[in-house]
């Protein structure tokens, strides 16, 4: 009986020692855990310009949602090696440097979708009563801008203050509104091909340089992703 009591006492003492060791071990682990520096969970940074979209009007936000449902068209640039292969590099460079449209195809930089949405959703074009002057207004990064179309062209470097004052520059758009002028220009670049405004094909243009420039305008200015072989009156105006 005495031996049994001693055995039970030893078992209890052994159990207490194990519990004490485990408690000490857990306490040490807890202390080390508190001492370890917490690793911050990195979050994806907001795309530049996202905050500006919060301040749009309900109508403008509706436009943004509509634009988001569409695919943004990425700009395209001329490849000098290919243009050299087709023998039209010098001709294209000469054509797009008067006016300074080469800037449109040489500017390269980061593009931010929120800024693009903000610009498109807030863009307004106003015309005077006599249609002699156009102005645009828009917002970028929450800042409002309003200026004439000609001033915008000068600011971007497409024109000079002197060139926009010339009669040719002032009257060109009105002259091109005439169907006669459009037909004459189409025949001059297609070797007198018949003019059908609903069925103009780029393959009829005889000069490779003009074909390349028209395609660049269609993608970079008009944002066209389909029917690239079809020529619109707007394309002829840009050309």
Care to describe what's here?
- The structure is a single chain.
- The chain contains eleven helices and three strands.
- The protein has helices at 2-35, 58-68, 80-85, 89-95, 102-106, 113-122, 149-155, 167-176, 179-189, 208-220, 233-238, and strands at 124-127, 134-140, 143-148.
- Strands 1-2-3 form a three-stranded antiparallel β-sheet.
- A hairpin with a 6-residue loop joins strand 1 (124-127) and strand 2 (134-140).
Shape call: globular
Assign a percent range to the helix content. 40-55%
Query: Low-confidence spans: pLDDT under 50, at least 5 residues?
Result: 1-5, 29-44
Strands of the widest sheet, in order across it, are 1-2-3
How would you spell out the order of helices and strands? HHHHHHEEEHHHHH
Distance between the termini: 114 Å
Rg, Cα atoms, Å: 35 Å
- Look at the structure and give the mean pLDDT: 75
Our estimate of the beta-strand percent is 5-15%
Total strands: the figure is 3
Distinct helical segment count: 11
Q: State the major sheet.
A: 3 strands, antiparallel
Helix/strand/pairing category: mainly alpha
In a few lines, what is going on in this structure?
The protein has 239 residues and is mainly α. It contains 11 helices and 3 strands, in the order ααααααβββααααα. Helix 2 (58-68) crosses helix 6.
Notable traits:
single chain; 239 residues; mainly alpha; 50% helix; disordered N terminus
Which SSEs are present, and which pair or pack?
Blueprint: H1 2-35, H2 58-68, H3 80-85, H4 89-95, H5 102-106, H6 113-122, E1 124-127, E2 134-140, E3 143-148, H7 149-155, H8 167-176, H9 179-189, H10 208-220, H11 233-238
Antiparallel strand pairs: 1-2, 2-3
């Amino acid at each position: 009986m005495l031996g049994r009591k001693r055995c039970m006492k030893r078992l209890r003492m052994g159990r207490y020692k194990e519990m004490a060791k485990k408690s000490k071990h857990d306490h040490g682990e807890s202390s080390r855990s508190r001492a370890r520096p917490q690793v911050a969970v990195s979050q994806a940074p907001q795309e530049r310009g996202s905050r500006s979209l919060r301040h749009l009007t309900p109508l403008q936000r509706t436009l943004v949602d509509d634009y988001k449902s569409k695919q943004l068209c990425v700009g395209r640039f001329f490849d000098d090696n290919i243009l050299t292969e087709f023998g039209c590099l010098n001709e294209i460079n000469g054509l797009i440097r008067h006016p300074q449209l080469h800037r449109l195809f040489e500017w390269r930089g980061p593009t931010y979708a929120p800024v693009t949405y903000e610009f498109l959703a807030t863009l307004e074009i106003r015309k005077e009563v006599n249609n002699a002057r156009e102005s645009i207004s828009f917002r970028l990064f929450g800042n409002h801008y309003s200026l004439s179309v000609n001033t915008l062209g000068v600011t971007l470097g497409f024109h000079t203050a002197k060139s926009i004052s010339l009669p040719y520059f002032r009257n060109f758009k009105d002259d091109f509104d005439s169907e006669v002028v459009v037909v004459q220009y189409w025949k001059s670049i297609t070797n007198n091909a018949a003019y059908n405004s609903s069925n103009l094909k780029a393959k009829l243009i005889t000069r490779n340089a003009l074909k390349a420039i028209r395609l660049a305008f269609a993608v970079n200015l008009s944002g066209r992703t389909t029917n690239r072989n079809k020529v619109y009156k707007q394309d002829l105006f840009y050309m």
